[in-house]
Specification:
The chain is α/β, with parallel strands linked by helices. It is about 50% helix and about 10% strand. The chain folds into 3 domains: about 250 residues, 3-Layer(aba) Sandwich (Rossmann fold); about 190 residues, Rossmann fold; about 45 residues. α16 runs parallel beside α22. The structure holds 6-O-phosphono-beta-D-fructofuranose.
């Protein structure tokens, strides 16, 4: 764990609590167990350590756990008052204590429509009103009734946003592409590097393009810069457009009406959400507008329904059979007792390829904290490094390290059985790879098995003995398998909500506020200062020699380039 430079006097007491100490003691025995033995001893292991939720199966039997481990992990969850905190969240209490806000992404998908109160106001009517407004608008665009300035229907949606205002909707659109409108395309622009917006705009016609400017605050530098570039492109394009035409081609999604109006978007074309929706939990809100345009309101509602079903599961299921709780506690087992530093998300479904990036933000921006909710220094590791990529490609790239590296990297394998592009040959190969990898990670290959294989391959004995240590696999690498019957909007909703609640449970155990993100502030502040220095070409602030050296190098190279162009 990285020590804090300012040592806070108060330290979080977690590591001295009974449940934690009991786990520490248990770990001494458990670390010596090999999963191969656990499977051999218990033919029912899969049955006992797997759960079904609607069409989703979670197999957590390939973990370094016994019944005792699970009992102790659930004790820890109870000691951390996970159930009570969960109820506080669903009930709209201000659990984001540093910002004094409720955390109610669950209300956005509360399809039962039971009242949810924030400051004595039932928020369901305004959520439903916004959904209705989005439905009317998106139906017009999708049916071709909404016409651009040249009287043509919209064919291309461009979502401009970053972080939660980009990763959620882009992941959803990518995942549910088979449900997309046949003649609408969607692009996402997040990077302030002009390359992205220029490449996107170069393929578009202003008369058939609709920009969705998505920003909770509407002050995010990258988003506002890209939105201004898009506006300028639109206004200076080949058509004789005026400011009045902006209303037909620009809409906004935000909590900040004033800033939206200042940008030049009529508030009639603004879709709202509220401060009790965290950016990284906002895909269920109006931030989903580009997904609704692309996929249709019916599919978006199914996504909400899937998430709502998982919310009900999380709310009502005992901890022992609660998917998000199990995943969270397994993560804590490896992170805090085995000291695993990272965890990989490996989708075996091409349409889920953006899920790892989405979960990186969801998890690491939520639980990447070293001070607990009460302002005390944590004396234990918190959020793990989340990373991943499409599993099948990873097999030919980074899986070597998973199989034979020195680190313990717990993995989540995610697959769907029925592909939207069902070619049996491809499907069978994909599924075999997914199954083979979790088996290989768990079993490994013993020295005896390896020796036998080398013998069968006819390798001479002295050569075989040399090769042996390199071909041996320790195994015992844990994985969860999350298998969807099919990647439908409903299943995706449940899958994302499951991960959101996993993050919540871990935050409870570590006693963190998972819903603020002060760690992103410092970089933003320094950016403003350095931008001022670049724009004025003046050294206005003091920097360390590295930052100053890099700034000088940047100026020098840029000047040389400008001189070259001027000559
Ligand atoms: O800088 C981090 C962050 O605030 C994220 O939490 C958020 O999702 C993203 O920036 C975008 O913010 P906004 O939607 O306000 O533009």
């Amino acid at each position: 764990m990285r020590p804090l430079r300012v040592i806070l006097n108060a330290k979080s007491p977690l590591i001295n609590t009974p449940a934690w100490l009991a786990l520490l003691e248990h770990y001494k025995k458990a670390k010596k167990l090999h999963m191969v033995d656990l499977f051999e001893k218990d033919p029912e292991r899969f049955k006992r350590y797997s759960l079904q939720f609607n069409d989703m199966l979670l197999d957590y039997s390939k973990n370094r756990i016994t019944d005792e481990t699970l009992t102790l992990l659930f004790d820890l969850a109870r000691q951390a008052k996970v159930e009570e905190s969960r109820d506080s969240m669903f009930n709209g209490e201000k659990i984001n204590n540093t910002e004094g806000r409720a955390v109610l992404h669950t209300a956005l998908r509360n399809r039962s429509n039971t009242p949810v109160f924030v400051d004595d106001e039932n928020v369901m009517p305004k959520i439903n009103a916004e959904l209705e407004k989005m439905q009317i608008f998106t139906n017009k665009v999708r049916s071709g009734q909404w016409l651009g300035y040249a009287g043509l229907p919209i064919t291309h949606i461009v979502n401009i946003g970053i972080g939660g205002s980009d990763l959620g909707p882009s992941m959803v659109c990518r995942a549910l592409k088979p449900y997309a409108h046949p003649s609408l395309k969607v692009s996402f622009v997040s990077n302030v590097d002009a390359t992205q917006i220029e490449q996107t705009l170069s393929k578009l016609r202003p008369e058939t393009t609709l920009f969705v400017i998505s920003s909770k605050t509407f002050t995010t530098q990258e988003t506002i810069t890209n939105a201004n570039t898009a506006k300028e492109w639109f206004l200076t394009g080949p058509g004789k457009v005026t400011n009045d035409d902006i209303a037909k081609h620009f809409v906004a999604v935000s909590t900040n009406k004033e800033a939206v109006e200042k940008f030049g978007i009529d508030s009639a074309n603004m879709f709202r959400f509220w401060d009790w929706v965290g950016g990284r939990y906002s895909l269920w809100s109006a931030i989903g507008l580009s997904s609704i345009l692309y996929l249709g309101m019916d599919n978006f509602i199914k996504l909400l329904e899937g998430a709502h079903a998982m919310d009900n599961h999380f709310r009502t299921e005992p901890l022992e059979t609660n998917m998000p709780v199990i995943l969270a506690m397994l993560g804590i087992w490896y992170g805090n007792f085995f000291h695993a530093e990272s965890s990989a998300v490996l989708p075996y479904d091409h349409n889920l390829r953006l899920l790892p990036a989405y979960l990186e933000q969801a998890d690491m921006e939520s639980n990447g904290k070293s001070v607990d909710k009460d302002g005390r220094q944590t004396t234990y590791s918190t959020g793990k490094i989340i990373w991943g990529a499409e599993g099948i490609n990873g097999q030919h790239a980074f899986y070597q390290l998973l199989h034979q590296g020195t680190r313990l990297i717990p993995t989540d394998f995610i697959a769907s059985i029925i592909s939207h592009h069902c070619d049996e040959t491809h499907c069978n190969i994909l599924t075999s790879n997914f199954l083979a990898q979790t088996e290989a990670l768990m079993r490994g290959r013993s020295m005896e098995e390896t020796r036998e294989q080398l013998k069968e391959a006819g390798i001479e004995l002295h050569k075989a003995e040399k090769r042996l240590p390199h071909m041996f696999f320790e195994g015992n690498q844990p994985s969860n398998s999350i298998v969807l019957k099919k990647l439908t909007p409903h299943a995706l909703g449940s899958l994302i909500a499951m991960y959101e609640h996993k993050i919540f449970v871990q935050g409870c155990v570590w006693n963190l506020n998972s819903y603020d993100q002060w760690g992103v502030e410092l970089g933003k502040n320094l950016t403003k200062k350095i931008l001022e220095e670049i724009e004025t070409n003046d050294d206005l602030y003091e920097h360390d020699s590295s930052t100053q050296g890099l700034l000088d190098w940047f100026r020098k190279c840029r000047k040389e380039e400008q001189n070259k162009q001027n000559n």
